[in-house]
Specification:
It is a single chain. This protein is an alpha/beta fold. Helix content is 48%, strand content 18%. It has a 7-stranded mixed beta sheet, with helices on both faces. Strands 3-8-7-6-5-4 form a 6-stranded antiparallel beta sheet, with helices on one face. Strand 7 and strand 8 form a beta hairpin. Helix 3 runs parallel beside helix 14 and helix 6 packs across helix 7. The two termini are 45 Å apart.
């Protein structure tokens, strides 16, 4: 712009024969016209068109309990083709209730629960929280646990009151003979297998689907977004929940590594993938997704650190609000670019060819900046509750 104004001054002065300046500073001088061109061509509205929309969109989302950690996530969410969702604590309430405790030999339920509850204190998984809470409610203070080891995607081990305890899914006990006493639980129930030095058994728990999950899935599908569930649960439970919610795809018995592989598979097909999760096992898959969404209340530290978008109140339906805001933000950015570029071109042409008066140029230049900012501020009033 500076170079253009200097060249225009040279042309008007030596090419068109206008005086360099006049004592009255009127429109007949080359300096006046060059200064007018400099003012109207400065891209203030263009420069502010995107940041103003991004800031207004982030502020609007925060009012609704959605934290966008930067403008890239706000822009990218509107481009997704698939939403991958964890099951426990995301599509379901995540508040498990113990239905029954089964042991071998029979009659040692309290011993099993006491050891499992103590070990469960070392995990933030919803299943572990439910078992630990049940143990505290029944026994009060729980045993101290030492030598704790987390086995990714499988379970936990540790020494409870000096005795070794293991708990987790069936893959943690690949060659255990005692599993024959415990057939697969009924669909809808989740089991946690426990092995101590003197007792073995399992704890059966139940988790209810979120009431908001089904309309969320339906709305996303109407917008052309495929919804897939990635869960470490059994195929029977995953299939039942997928049918109940109308999901496009459900993959069960997933480890953190297989969740990552699934997202990379979809991305290799050219899909833009967003991932919603809350547990530490979801952190690797959140890291590879195009947009990562974490549950703010129950989410682990690893999830909250990794997520681009955080749902502060753990309300899954907020994904719809976030998506609408992202679409609206991209639309307003396009509008701002058209307004700012259009006014800039018109004013520059007017200054070059039609001796545009400086006051009119200032009015158009500053007016377009105000219009762009006001257009961005419309995001603050979208979907007000």
């Amino acid at each position: 712009i500076l170079l253009l104004s200097a060249l225009a001054f040279c042309w008007w002065h030596w090419g068109a024969g206008l005086p360099a300046w006049t004592s009255h500073g009127d429109e007949s001088s080359a300096l006046y016209r060059a200064m007018t061109l400099l003012v109207v061509s400065s891209p203030c509205a263009l420069v502010i068109s995107i940041p103003s929309a991004i800031l207004a969109g982030i502020a609007s989302a925060a009012r609704k309990g959605i934290l966008f950690r930067g403008g890239i996530a706000l822009e990218n969410l509107a481009t997704i083709d698939r939403l991958a969702v964890d099951k426990t604590g995301t599509l379901t309430e995540g508040e498990f209730q113990i239905i029954s405790i089964q042991t071998w030999p029979e009659g040692r339920e309290d011993e099993l629960l006491r050891g499992a509850a103590a070990l469960s204190q070392q995990s933030t998984h919803p299943l572990s929280r439910a078992i630990a809470n049940a143990g505290r409610l029944k026994f009060g203070e729980l045993h101290v646990v030492t030598q704790v080891e987390s086995i990714a995607g499988k379970g936990l081990r540790g020494d409870v009151a000096g005795k070794s305890f293991w708990q987790g899914r069936r893959s943690l006990f690949p060659e255990a003979d005692w599993l024959s006493h415990f057939p697969d639980p009924a669909p809808g129930l989740t089991e946690v297998l426990v092995q101590g030095e003197e007792v073995v058994g399992r704890i059966l728990l139940r988790d209810a689907p979120r009431l908001s999950s089904k309309p969320l899935v339906k709305q996303l599908q109407q917008w052309g977004i495929r919804v897939a569930m990635l869960t470490g649960d059994r195929p029977e439970s995953a299939s039942m929940l997928a049918q109940e919610l109308g999901l496009d795809e459900a993959r069960a018995s997933m480890t953190p590594e297989s969740k990552v592989a699934a997202i990379q598979e979809w991305k290799a097909r050219g899909e833009k993938v967003a991932m919603v999760g809350d547990g530490v096992n979801d952190a690797p898959s959140l890291a590879v997704a195009d947009v990562s969404i974490g549950m703010g209340l129950r989410g682990s530290d690893a999830v909250l650190e990794q997520a681009d978008v955080i749902l502060l109140n753990d309300q899954l339906e907020k994904v719809l609000i976030a998506y609408r805001l992202s679409k609206a933000c991209r639309m307003i950015i396009r509008q701002n670019l058209v307004i700012s570029l259009g006014v800039l071109v018109i004013l520059a042409l007017g200054s070059l060819g039609f001796a545009l008066p400086l006051p009119l140029g200032v009015l158009g230049h500053e007016g377009s900046t105000v219009i762009v900012v006001l257009n961005s501020l419309r995001l603050l009033f979208m979907g007000r509750e």
